[in-house]
Amino acid sequence: MIQILKEIAAARSVLLCAVTVLLVCQAWRVVAADDHDHHDGVHAGQDGAQEEGLVRISRAVADQSGIGVATAGPATLEIVTQAYGRLVIPPDREAHIHARFPGLVKDIRVHVGERVTRGDVLAVIESNQSLRDYTVKASMSGIVTKRQLNLGELTDDEPLVVIVDDDWLWAELQIFPHQRGAVEQGQVVHLVREQRELRSVITHIAPSDNNAPYMLARVTVDNTGRQFTPGEMVRADIVLESVEVPIAVENQALQTMEGQQVIFIREGDTYERRVPRLGRTDGYATEILDGLEIGETYVTDNSYLIKADIEKAGAEHHH
Fold first, then answer.
1. In 3D, which of 251, 234, 238, 239 has the Cα closest to residue 194?
2. What pLDDT does 17 receive?
3. What is the 3-state secondary structure (H, E, C) of 113-138?
4. CA of 283: how far to CAs of 74, 182, 237, in Å?
5. How many helices (H) and strands (E) does the chain have?
6. Strand residues in 91-232 grouped as ranges (E)
7. Tens digits of residue pLDDT in 109-141
8. Which CA distances in Å does 312 have to 30, 52, 301?
9. How confident is the model at residue 30 (pLDDT cuts 50, 70, 90)?
10. DSSP state of 100
11. DSSP 3-state assignment of 302?
């Protein structure tokens, strides 16, 4: 009897769940239909005809979708030339630590990869002449990249230890003949490596070490945050000219529709496709010569969602 009662209770529970699901689905259909009526992807004109190139999205839905906007206005464009190069240790940031007098290595206190501070004792040497011990100390702070001798060995002309200070690096950029006339000492440089970016300047320009057909533009890199590693390849945007323009948009706002570059203007809950006349660009922002007014709100983040909605609405309209 107890088992039968349990089975009846279980059946009632299953039936109740099924009814609940049906009610929720029915309610969702009602809400979805109401939402379609009020948030259609195509805006109806006063004469009842649907206008293409417009879409209406509520502010709440836009926020949930991550649709970001910006206000059109003046901007400074940086006209750049790109160069590539490698991060290296500047010569004055590398120390080769030698034993002052020939002798026996009685103690070696550092290993490759360790960081040391200026004044730290690196090794203890027994002098061959006096048979007295003396210490070898770090002449600079940095990381130990080489340890030439080990305990019990005799010192020679080779350095005991090599220390590198990687707090500051050089980016050695290759400047080819077609760029040489435009690239100068003191120009601003944006160094890019994956998701990292650093602003610096060209400190000097020198011939390549191996007579290669390019010059080397050296850029000082602040690496105190250990963002970069010696030997890494980097891309550089060298700023040749800064241009003030009366109105510009972020490049991520531009989308291609029907072979044209377009932007999307927001007015209230309505998004309108606009075909602007474009001017100069620096890779991050583009000058607008016509088709957009200062103060208008345009879509930046996830503008492709607006594009997809308008294209879908246009396809439905034609069918």
1. 234
2. 41
3. CCEECCCCEEEEEEECCCCCEEEEEC
4. 16, 18, 10
5. 4, 23
6. 94-97, 103-108, 115-116, 121-127, 133-137, 142-147, 161-164, 168-175, 188-193, 196-207, 215-222
7. 999 999 999 999 999 999 999 999 999 999 999
8. 22, 10, 20
9. very low
10. S
11. coil
pLDDT of residue 13: 52
Sketch out the chain's domains with CATH numbers: 43-75+245-318 (2.40.420.20), 80-90+167-243 (2.40.30.170), 92-164 (2.40.50.100)
Spatial distance between the Cα atoms of 105 and 158, rounded to a whole number of angstroms: 13
| Nearest to 185, CA basis, from 205, 161, 213 | 205
Tokens 């590539």 locate to: 84
Residue whose C-alpha is closest to residue 173's, from 208, 211, 198 = 208
Residue type, 312: K
Tell whether pTM > 0.85.
no
Query: Does the CA dihedral 103-105-107-110 come out positive or negative?
Result: positive
Q: Which residues, in sequence order, are bridge partners of residue 188?
A: 201
What's the mean pLDDT in 73-92? Answer: 94
Digit-coded pLDDT (tens) for 231-289: 999 999 999 999 999 999 999 999 999 899 999 999 999 999 999 999 999 888 999 99
- Distance between alpha carbon 13 and the CA centroid of its chain, in Å? 54
